[in-house]
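Here comes an entry:

___
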Amino acid sequence: MRMGLDVHVDLWYDNVRRDWSLWAIEQLSEADFILVIASPKFKQRADGLAPSHEGRGAQFEAAILRDNLTRNLKEQTERILPVVLPGRSIEEIPVFLNAYSTTRFEISEFTEHGVADLIVAITGDGRHQMPERGVWRGGARTTPAAEPLTVARMPWVLSTPDLRPGDAVLKGVRYIDSIVMRPSSISTEATGFLDVDLGGRFQTMCSAIGVVGDDTERSQVGLFKVHVDGVAQFERQVLPGTPEMIRVDVAGALRLRLEMSRSWRTVANDLMHGADVGWRPSRLPELAWGNPILR
């Protein structure tokens, strides 16, 4: 079968003389799932309304299904699947299958999409998976919800002198409440960081990160790091003209550190070898956290 199902139908077993009652018992006992195809005649026979000589096989099989449901209703409800084919009606589902109070499978067309719900019931692989339960962080009194705050406007517990709050333009987008690093002199390595207290009030930190200013200097590479309660949670290198939006989990955290740095070796080497003799301090590399927000 195209969908990978092992299907057994009596029409495919006419190659030898058989005891069909035993065959039916075997199939109905061994099958993982039983499809009951709705039709007026099967409903009449399954509900005991047909003459005893009419559709004896269908009446026999329906009796076994009713007995199975009586023996273990929950198990057999999941195992016996009523199917309504195109052009048929749910009114043709036998009464004992409870067409209106239990799941039924109405096939709109003979395509993968048309049988999707039926395949879900057989495979157990639902299209809408329940998400994993999150970690309990305590009630509202222990972790009160906080209004969104921009890190640039919060008190900084600790910070390096090259950081300041202000505007930053990253690839043409202006971020008003940014944190910008503008080193005052060339050194082997320039690193800027700041710490803020969270108090366990926030869930996430979102921000843009990028190189600010003259992005024609392709040697500029910004390195951005996030530490939550002293543990590194995020690290990314960003090239000029390619800012990124990031999101970091800070649920229940007490302290957040934002850090950014870039290597100055390329700039220093160029200067020492006489390259770019028109270099001015205004071209010092700049990095920025664009509107870092805590929610």
In short: The mean pLDDT is 85.
